[in-house]
Design goal:
The complex is a heterodimer of chains A (307) and B (262).
Chain A: H1 2-32, H2 39-59, H3 64-91, H4 100-121, E1 126-127, E2 136-139, E3 142-145, H5 146-168, H6 170-180, H7 182-187, H8 192-218, E4 220-221, H9 225-240, H10 245-269, H11 279-293, H12 303-306
Antiparallel strand pairs in A: 1-4, 2-3
Helix pairs in contact in A: 1-5, 1-8, 1-9, 1-10, 2-3, 2-4, 2-8, 2-9, 3-8, 5-6, 5-8, 6-8, 9-10, 9-11, 10-11
Chain B: H1 2-18, E1 32-41, E2 44-54, E3 59-64, H2 70-78, E4 85-90, E5 93-94, H3 100-106, E6 108-111, H4 123-130, H5 137-150, H6 152-156, H7 167-179, E7 185-189, H8 197-212, E8 216-221, H9 224-230, E9 233-238, E10 241-246, H10 253-259
Parallel strand pairs in B: 3-8, 3-9, 6-7, 7-8
Antiparallel strand pairs in B: 1-2, 1-4, 4-5, 9-10
The chains are: A mainly alpha (307), B alpha/beta (262).
Amino acid sequence: MEIFLQQIINGLVQGSVYALVALGYTMVYGILGLINFAHGEVVMMGAMISLSVLTALIGIGLSPFLALPLSLTLAMAGCMALGYGIERIAYRPLRHAPRLAPLITAIGVSIVLQNLAMMIWGRDYHSFPQLFSNHTHQIFGAIISDIQLIIVIAALCIMAGLMLLIHRTRLGRAMRAIAENQHAAQLMGVDVNRVISITFMIGSALAAVAGLMVSANYGLAHYYMGFLLGLKAFTAAVLGGIGNLRGAMLGGLLLGLIESLGAGYIGDITGGFMGSQYQDVFAFLVLIAVLVFRPSGLLGERLAERA
Amino acid sequence: MMNSDTLSPRKQKSSNLAKPRAEMAGKNGALLEVKGLRIAYGGIQAVKGIDLHVAEGELVALIGSNGAGKTSTLKALAGILPPSTGQIQFDGKSLNSVPAHQRVVMGIALVPEGRGVFARLSVSENLLMGAYSRSDDSEIKEDLRRMYELFPRLVERRDQVAGTLSGGEQQMLAMARALMSRPRLLMLDEPSMGLAPLMVKKIFETIKEVAAQGMSILLVEQNARLALQVANRGYVMESGAIALSGESLLGNDAVRRAYLGG
């Protein structure tokens, strides 16, 4: 029972991160019909920036309570600029090109960012500074650390905030209108390019938060971390129904739980033949299963309705 | 670069809205003046150099058969289709380099062919989208009330998503949404298309009512008789060119034979 509960907690923590990243994929897809495969790299850049700034600030003796928000703010600003630039340089010129062109470009952007990060930060793992005492809480025998608790709560607050933004504000209304009919939105006086830029920037800000969360949770960051994380968050977005915000959140949390429970019990199931190193298999099994049995995802509409 | 592009018209807009838009008129001459407008899709000329104008407070009909270039003309005026050559002047200012979203701020609204309502947004959200270019919240609320008065059918459905509305209700919503931007020129593309006769009658009554309040309207219609009945003036378009224009097209023999069935 404790193991089960522990895996649930781990899954929720990991799932919160997936959900934040999946939102970035799904917002861009909803508006442009484009899968921004460079999004995982934005998460990595967020992690690397926040980690470098954090290490530097702690190094000059700043209190973690100041250094943490400061480094997060800088990482968010950096990632927002990055997201804006990616859309402007790589995707906007291809807005009316065949669908394959921006997809290939996305992979190109991803490679560029990885190599850029490797040049700046090197190939080594960077470790997350020890900020707080490793204080943990016990829930029915399962353990959750302060950092994990913060990750889950912060992610939930951010998601609630995003839902308010999308459903209750003028900007959110414009985003939903563009997702449905770009020409009609223009006729309402919406500057479509501006709203698309803002969408990329919001997604990238969420990616920066997720990047900091991952590196805090695992205690490290490196230039290659965005690839797998990006693919998994993409899987989460597809699982929930790509283009659907609630779907991205649900998909993220579910994928985190599936992975964590899978990793926790795979040893028992296979009689010790496979261990928790096979954790990643579950994400992609889910992806294959969704694509085969329910391509529109859990909360997605049938594709015919989109066209 | 992007930011400076978008910030200046926003400032301009808020000062526009401080006073009612009618005050800004008062200049003599046409509100809309089009000269030598040409539109091409690939190698095909859809519009072959047309001239037309709409004066302040006028209801002008643009009729013609399918494929004559009427819709292309409206799209070019709204700014969502780039013309190959030609001058478009609105209130004395050239629109040629003004993007679509800023034309809305200047006072041009288009109800597109097929209505273009946002099917997954609610009726009231659609109306609020119409007021996107405005920031005078209290007046927007007042206009919302006026729209519900003009189209009582929309009141009961205000929280429904627009996709669940009937075709006629969607046309009403599209017109109300366009009016929410407080346009000075309202352009309607085939408002009667696909509607039951009773609904067509209702829509045209509303068009007359809006025109009677002094709105300048450019009406594109395939139902030529109906359009010419409500209009002050008309243009007949034939394969991309203006074939005829004037005030009493309903009595014109050529128009009768070609568009009114004898």
